[in-house]
Every structure is written in structure tokens, then in C-alpha cells.
Amino acid sequence: MTSREKILASIASNKPSLVTLPNVPIFEGDGSIERFKTVLEGIGGRAIEVASKADCQTAIDKYYSDLKNVASNIVKASVAVNLDTTKDILEQVDLAVLQGEIGVAENGTIWVPESNMLNRALPFITQHLVLVLDKKNIVANMQQAYDKLEGVGSYGVFIAGPSKTADIEQALVIGAHGARSMMVLIY
Amino acid sequence: MKVGLFIPCYVDQFYPNVGVATLQLLEKLGVEVVFPMKQTCCGQPMANGGCEQDSKGVYEHFVDTFADFDYIVTPSGSCTYHIKKHYDIIEQTPAVQKVRKSVYELVDFIENVLKVDEIPVNFPYKVGLHLSCHGQRGLRQANASEITGVRDGQISKLLRKLKGIELTELERNDECCGFGGMFCVTEEAVSARMGQDRIADHLRNGTKVLTGGDVSCLMHLEGIIKRQNVPIKVMHIAEILNGNQP
Amino acid sequence: MNHQNHPELAEAFNKDFERTTWHDETLWFVRQKRDKAVYPIPEFQDLRTLASEIKDHTLSNLDNYLLEFEQNAIKNGVKVHWAADATEHNQIVMDIIKETSLEKAKGRNIRLIKSKSMLTEECHLNVFLQKNNIDVVDTDLGERIIQFRDEAPSHIVMPAIHLKKEDVGETFHEHLGTAKGEKDPQILTEAARQHLREKFVAADVALTGVNFAIAETGSFVVCTNEGNADLGVNLAKVHIACMGIEKIIPKLHHLSVYTRLLARSATGQPITSYTSHFTKPAEGKEMHIVIVDNGRTQQLGRADFRASLKCIRCGACMNTCPVYRRSGGHSYDFTVPGPIGAILSPNIDLHKYSSLPFASTLCGSCTDVCPVKIDIHVQLYKWRQIVGQANELPAAKKWGMKGLAKVLSMPKVYDLSGKLARGALRILPHGLTHNQSMNPWAKARELPDAPKQSFKEWYEENRK
Q1: pTM strictly above 0.80
Q2: Which residues contact C12 (CB under 8 A, 6 or more apart)?
């Protein structure tokens, strides 16, 4: 008997009789841009409203003029990043500007599927991260977010603010291993 | 209405005044109370110690003592909770079921059976309320801070209406005192520390009289107060509601 | 070494009064953050109920959901492995590592980086791999700190919560060359970032835990704040994810319940910084899932205790527990400390962990804080009975209880014993009644005054 069979048999003989699966409602809630911004700022991120997607470039020029190596398929890029980009190049990326799909007002998180990442490692290895988000894709809470998602693809991440840790005496430090800062451009 | 008074074993032995106050209070509220002389204990000390099976005789004795009453009233949330929750290991005869259903903690009985929501007592002191966990979370006599930020409960409702009283606003409204039955000796270090921390919270926030619904918690806290020579007077809620003064 | 029980370790912890204060307040601060994150969500209690019921359902159909998960994961190009116990788990992980990376390593040690996984702690994976010449680097900051110090985690979410910044400063001075006396968390974290970036880039294999596995899609979810899981797996060629059988949930949209509960309960954040959904390996890379039993199916068979398998490892029961806060995670001497550990551990070794169900006042705060509504304090009570019946109670306590039970079932004997005891307390000198070695009560507390009359005696005199 393989371990697989052993485990499955043991579960079959130990599990209780079938319990009903509850229905998860789509809870209502405040899905406003204001709330999204406030919450995101509360978790160390920043949200800026821009007039249109085309204006993202202006915002990047304004806020990130000091950053040299920019990877993006939305604004002007100085580093080309794709699936095959090697670690040594990825390591040099200062700023990644990527498309976010769904924003959640309740927790300031944004869904980024693999198809928007250029390279799976990019959103994490970049020193700074900017996600651009269509304001009509902001929902109130996670029920609404998963309801809106059409599957999770091969890989996808809800990103909420910059990388952080409080592992030393519960003191919050922004910029643990991933992005040191995170901004959302809402258009 | 036939009401049986249950005075928990340690109250009977060490805090008879709490028993007296409970009896007098109920009498003032017009209740005819009988105290069955053969009563001993609800059996909780053994059960919490891992010897529930050894308690069965005590459980049966309790049921036998109180089966004839419409209500069983006791100045203890903890004993009430134990009877309601843990008398499930003996045969559920009609008598056992009746006893488990009709046992009431004193304040719960006053508010929800007698429907009394105000007691005319003058008590011009700053009072710190210690919520016993079994009363609060076991019997749901008070809100739990894990569930809501609104601090409210049966005992505080009655207390707030006493004349001249001021209630202490604690930093940790419902942190356990650390008594915990046998825990107070088997885990002496943590138990004592928990109690010390509760007293410190009351001291910092101005408690002059410490009260609560369970003598067990209060006995533990009073032990610390006396050892530390702290100017806090300990009174059970029954004593305050009965009009006793510190 | 003799295994020390909880009271002994807790007493040692409490010897340092100030540090105990600090530990209690630090954890209470996390509990308060949790409250602030929870109170404003109107449906929070509904979410707890849903989370609990979804898990109840899943456990009642666990074998089928595991099969569904496996089938979908395989379809996704993921390799699925099954381990009956810790030994098999460790062997499987090592075999994957060696098969995939031995050749590439060309004689040097294979480099593994890990994000947090309590399961691998439970299986003592690190020690096993290191013995087999695999370099293991924990990348979660807290885990890295305790790895340097060769300690066990003292908390499942904040592994180094028992340490002060001065302690971390010293450790980093020794291992990372930070300045002596440097204790600024910002600077220490930056040092760890630089140090670990090198490790991320150099790693051959990345291992993660699993927060949730979705039967419907064959995906699994990993939640971190630091981004260490994603950074690791997306740079390494091989990703190994280790999960206990209880991590399954049926459908993707069920995540909407758990992702609203987990971080709020754990740290008071609205959600973790990264909630990563892994479904298929990237092109040219490998993804493995190791599904582990290690005592879980046995717990599933214990009707009174199976709800413990609903745990989503948020650690809220630790932060809220007044005993944990004043005894520290190491006093439990089990991978998962605190209230949840005290109901999981007796299933693993009843004798060794027999003191843990008693390391509680049964205050019930753990049950009320638990995002999946595990009746933790009820289970603690029930484990006590099993410890009692298995003859694992200290003899004095056992016979004391039996004696007490006898006395309390015989009213006349009870009355007389009470009278004698009170009489003795009144007559005996304070030094004797409060002797600290004979009476632990008296170490920090006075005994109540022993009144002349019991209530019963008063009643007989005044009301009969």
C-alpha cells in the first residue's frame, strides 16, 4: 500500500459523515476610490489619481525621475524584461510599472496575474513597484474580487502595499525582501 | 416559584458573608429562598483537573439536592457554567436536564427571571468590575472583546444604576485573572503574574472597590491585594447589591 | 535531557519580571491591532461562521477533495507526492532536491531557500537536510534570526517574538557583521535584505509552505508580508510546496472568506502584502507538492478534537492567551505553541505533552478570537480528561482529586472537613499556613481569612 493509498484510506475511515457546504454570499461594501486610497496608505502604499492611462508616464517622470532602470510594458522602459531575462539583470531593476487588474477597497490589495508581470520575479525583485489600475475595477471586498476574477491563471498575486516585516520587536519596517515602495496610479 | 440557593463550597467555607448577602438580597427582592442543607459542591474542581469521571458522584449528589426547585440560584458564574456545560457525562434523566436548565447565576436571575433592572442602593465609590471568564464567555453575561469593542454586560448594567457609583475604565476589560481552579497552584508562576497584572490595571485606573460575580477570581485577586498591601477593597457583587458598604 | 513540563518552563520565564511584562505587552499590542482590524468589518462574525463551516464540510469530504486537488494539480503540470509521516516527508523533499539539482550543483552543496512553513518545522526538515549536505536558508526575517541563533520559533506567525531588538542586533553583529550595539530594526532589516538577496539569487531550490490548497483548480496559495516566498520560487528552478492534508478548501471563491480573516486575525493587517496563487510552473521550471499526514488523519478520527484541523495558523490564540503571553512560546516545547498547540500536541505524544492542556485557565478567549471558531478551550478541557484517564496526572493530584470527590459527595464529611480545615487555618501560625514550598498559593498571595462559621452554620443559626 502506498502512502497515498494509506492516507486516503485513513481519511475515509476517520472522517465524519458529510457536512453541508455553506453558500458564501457576495457581501456588499464600500468600493470607493477614497476608501481604497485610505486603506492603501494605511498599509504603507500610496495612491495617486491620474486623468488617463496615458498620463501614467507623467506621474512616473514626476515621482521616479531618480530611478534609472525601469521595466515596464506601460511606460517607457530602460530595461527589457521578459520570460527569459536572467537573474543578474532582474536584480538591477529599480522600478517596475505594471498593470493591476482588480483593486480591493477594503484592504488596498491589487490582483496582478502572471500575464501582466513580464517575468514572474519582477514584481518582487524590483526595488520599487508601481501598479496602474482602472478605477472601474475597484471593488469593495474579497468576495467581490474573487467573483470578478475569471480564474487565477498559471500564477497570480494579490499585492497590498510594499514588502514589509515586523519580525524585530513588532517594529514595522517597510522594504523587507520585495519592493521598498509601492504606488498605485488610478485612472 | 420555588428557589433553591446554592452556595459554592469555597464560598460556604471561606466567604460566608457572600452567601448571607446573596440570601438577603434575594429576600429583599421578594423571593422565597430555600437553602438545602445537604449541598456540597458542583464538582468543577476535579473535572477541570482532568478527573471528570471522579466527579460523577458529586454531580449526582447535586442533582439529587436540587431537583425539586424551579430555579437554582448561585452567586457564581463559574459553577453555573459548569453545571450547564459539563453535566453532560451523567445520564440525562429528567431531573438532570431540569437542574441544568434551571440553574442561574445570581445577576442573570435578577435581570432575566425577576426582571429587575435597578436596585436602590447608594454606593459612592469607584468600582472596578472583574469579569469572570465563565460568566462572561461561558454564560455570555457580558460582551467579549474578541467579538466587539462595546463593553457591556449584565453586571455592569446593574452596577451603573447604583447611586453615586463610578465604574473603572480598565485597559484590559476582560483579561482573565489567572485563578483557573487548580491552575492557581499547578501553574503558580503564571497564575500569580496574571493576577498581579489585573490588580495593576485596577490600581492605575483608580479602582477603590473591586467586585465581580465569582468569589474564586476575587479570592485570588484579594490574596494578591493583601500580599501587596494595595488599597483596594474586595466585595462580591451580591454584597454591593445587598447594600453592604466597604 | 529530561523533558521539562510547562509549569517549570513557565516559572523560569517568569523569573525575569520586566521581560515578562515586555513579552505580554508586545503580544497584547498585536491582539489590539487585531481588534482594530476586526471591529469595523460588519460581517466579521459571519465570515468566522462561514470559515468554520467550509472547513467542517471539507474535513467531512477530505479524501475526495484531496483527490480532486491532485488530479487538477497533475493536469497543471505539478508533481504531487504523498508522505505518511515526517520521515517520509523529509526523504521526499531531499529526493526532489537531489534529483533536480545535484547535477547543476557540480560538487558544491545544493542551496535551498525556504519561506515559512510550520509543517517543515514539525518534521524537523532543516536538520535532516543539513545532515545530508544541503544548505538551508530560512528567508523569513524572523526565521532567519532564529536560524542564526539555532533556536526554535516561539510563535507561528512571529517566530522571533521572544527576542528583543538588542538580541537581534547581537546576532546580526555576529553573523552579518552589523555594527556592535546596532539595534535599529530598520538597519537590521536592511542588513538581512542585502544578505538574503544574495541567497535568493544563488538558490537552486525554493521551498514554501501552503496556506490554502484549492481542490477545484489544483492551485495553492501562499501568504507573506515580506515577499520572500515569491522572490524565492520565482528565481529558483524548482519549487517545492509542503502542505498538511488539512489545507484544502473546495473552491477558489472560498478564498474570499479566508483572505479576509487570516491577516486581520494574525497581525491586524487587512490582508498580507502578498497573497500568491500558484497553479502551473513557469516554463522550464518544476513545481512539486508534498501532501503530508503525520498524525492528522488520526486527529480526524477523534470526534472531540477533529476541529483542531480547521486551524489556518493565524496565531491569534497565542496573542490573546494570557498564559502564552506570560510564559513564552518555548515553554510549550512543541512546534505549534499556545492554545492551539496545546490541543494538537497531545495527539502526537500524550505523555510528553501531558502538561499542556493544563497550561490554561480555560478562559475561552482563544475560542472567541479564533477565525475558524475552533472550540479550543473546550478541547483543552477534554484533553485533560484523557490525560487523567491515561494515568498521566501527577500522583498527588490524582489521589487528591479522588479524595476530594469522595468528600464532596458526602455532605456530613464535607461539613466536618471544612470545619476542621478552617479551625486549623485559624490556629496555625501564618508562617506555616503560608509556607511556600508546601503551599504554592502562598508564594504571591495571602490565604483568605478562615471564618469561624461557614455559611451553612450561619444559616442553621439564623434561618431555620
Answers
A1: yes
A2: none
What is the chain C residue with the closest CA to B59?
Answer: C409
Average pLDDT over residues B57-67: 96
3-state helix, strand, coil in chain C (%, to 5): 55, 10, 35
Q: Cβ separation of C441 and B41 shorter than 8 Å?
A: no
Long-range contacts from C439-443, C-beta under 8 angstroms, 24+ separation = C440/B185, C440/B188, C441/B184, C441/B185, C441/B188, C441/B223, C443/B188, C443/B192
Please check the confidence at residue C1 and state whether its pLDDT lies above 60.
Answer: no
Of residues A17, A39, A175, nearest to C193 (C-beta) = A175
* Cα distance between the two ends of chain C: 62
Over range A27-44, report the average pLDDT.
98
Q: What percent of chain B has pLDDT over 90?
A: 100
Q: How far is C439 from chain A (nearest CA, A)?
A: 37
Q: Which one of C369, C407, C445 has the shortest CB-CB distance to B146?
A: C369
pLDDT tens digit sequence for C247-287: 999 999 999 999 999 999 999 999 999 999 999 999 999 99
pLDDT reading at C225 higher than 70:
yes
Of B9, B133, B223, the CB nearest to C361: B133
**pLDDT of C86 over the 60 cut:** yes
Residue C376 CB partners (closer than 8 Å, separation 6+): C308, C317, C339, C340, C343, C366, C367, C370
Rounded CA separation C32/C267 (Å): 9
Which H or E run contains C249? strand C248-249
B194: closest CA among B136, B238, B133?
Answer: B133
pLDDT in tens, C409-443: 889 988 888 888 888 888 888 888 888 888 899 99
Contact criterion met (CB below 8 Å) for C418 and B12: yes
Which of C408, C441, C453 is nearest residue B58 as measured by Cβ atoms? C408
Name the helix (H) or strand (E) containing B227: helix B215-228
- Cβ-Cβ contacts under 8 Å, B17 against chain C: 451
Residues of C in contact with A6 (CB under 8 A): 84, 293
Please tell me the predicted confidence (pLDDT) of residue C394: 84
State the chains in contact with B (3 or more Cβ–Cβ pairs under 8 Å). C
Quickly state the pLDDT bin for C103 (edges 50, 70, 90): confident
A20/C82 Cβ within 8 A:
no
| ipTM value > 0.95 | yes
- In chain A, which ranges are E strands? 46-49, 70-72, 95-99, 102-104, 109-113, 128-133, 138-139, 155-159, 164-165, 173-174, 181-186
Segment C334-355 shows an average pLDDT of: 96
CB neighbourhood size of A66 (10 A): 7
Interface test with C, best of A165, A172, A174, A182 (most C CBs within 10 A): A165
- Across chain A, what does the average pLDDT equal? 97
- Rounded CA-CA distance B153/B133 in Å is 12
- With a CB cutoff of 8 Å and minimum separation 6, the contacts of B59 are B42, B43, B87, B89, B90
Residues A68-112: tens digit of each pLDDT: 999 999 999 999 999 999 999 999 999 999 999 999 999 999 999
Answer left, alpha or beta for residue A57, where phi above 0 means left and psi between -120 and 50 means alpha.
alpha
